[in-house]
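Model it.
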Amino acid sequence: MTILTNRDFTRPPFKFRLRRCLALTLLLTLLASTTSAQPTGELAQRLADVKFEHYAPAPGYSEGPTWRKGEVFFCSGALLRVDAQRGVHKFLDINPGGTVLKADGHMLIVDNKHRALLDLSPDNKPSVVVEQFETQALRGLNDLTIDGRGNVYWSDPEGSSLDKPVGNIYRVRPDGRVDRIGGGLAFPNGLDVDPAGKFLYVVESQSKKVLRYEVPADNELLGQPELFYDLGGSGGDGCAFDAAGNLWMTDFHRPETGKGRITVISPEAKVLAYLPVPAKVVSNIAFGGVNHDEIFCTTGEPPGVFHAKVGVKGFAGHPGKPLPIIRTLNVVARRPHADTESLAKIASVAASAKLEGEQIDAETRQQMKSLAAGLTDVPLRGDVEKLLPTWEKAAARHAHDGFLLAEIKRLNGKATLEVTAPDWLRSIVGDEALSSFGRIVEIELNERTDGHKEPTPKPLTDRVHDDWLKRLADQTDLRRLELSGTAVTSAGLIHLKHLANIERLNLCLTAVSDEGFEYLAGMTRMRRMTICSSKITGTGFAHLQGMKQIESINLHSAPASDAGLEAIGKLTTLRRLEIV
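Modeled.
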């Protein structure tokens, strides 16, 4: 008999404990995997043999799919289009986060390049529906949906996290009114309204939860949400309903499998099926196909679109209503063409042209003419040859503006250009290649934006001053000009008097006074003026009564007077005035 001493008989040896711990870990992993595969109902059985295919690649992480007339549109640095032959094409040069199709064929898009909710017509003309809330530019736009009354909702997660739940939900009504209807969210992401039109479901990605709100009345905000489902794992991203009212969630990434999956949840929050997706992450989902019984999922690693025939009818979505259009967007839908590469060469030559007096150099003109003669599409060749004189003038202007752009860069400023080429040319080549047709529409030269901080001393040669503004006198396409904290005074504003298209002007922390406002009288398209911490009393607005579109004036920390406020009060379109 072996006698054991100094041994705790209730505690197994270390190696055995280690083996048992490893076995338990393996068992828990297997149980988690088993739990993930547990649904055994009718839907789970129908989906058991579903196979995904990599339908289309993408240049990067992909989001926001929509199926329209045999083609798939999705977001990946631009709005991309997958044609019926599965060719992938850049479609719109925007930065979209999500898309949704209305019954009338219009597609709604949340776009972070223009910070706007866009409407894309059936003939592919984009327009702006919403670009402000309470006169402020929209923030991060993530995803969107429509309810049964035609209201459009979108999520804004910008700056939010579990520690800082500042995400919001917005709504635009069919009459164009915009409301912030919910907040305090930790990264609100995908959202959708159920087929019955009763509930708004919101994926709160940072908490890994799906929240459910009652759809509010038109004049009400969202109430308190209920926790509909806790996804766990890495949380969710997007969602879509099938025709039966089940929610198909993109379960972003499952740690136990290293892949994403679709989790199908009943209205009673019961998991009906799991559908593994052969990608590391799955971001969003849309139903489509001729019978609307196929799914298209956007992914990352590999990025693009995955497709599966599931044999389950998707909910076609609430039909929506027409929305008021604020303005058309200067973006043109792209189309494939055999001469795209040749046209791009002409554009490249034009963009590098040098000035000879008021014209571009003779060598560039000859190169452009020779390249145009080599186009294979005869009607297109004729159009390009007719356009060449205009293109040469645009290239000369581009070369001229190059000196201004270099100066703006030297002063650590920023400029935004907008292409003015004919739409037929833009649709083939794309705006990125057509810089020779670019006109400057925004300039930001702010030197100081905080009145509480002392400015860093700079020599006048490194600052924007009155004489420097002469460079802007012929920039008649300019819509936004930021000059906060510069050395500009009232006298310098005379150089801006012909800039009739200015919509936003910032003269904060400058020595500009009311007397200089007479030079701004021609800016009748002005919508927002920021003149805080300046010498402005407001009396200068007597010169600006022709501003029939102005919505916002910021006179914060400026010496506003009674006479000045009286002049401002006559601006009948004003919605926001800051005078603290």
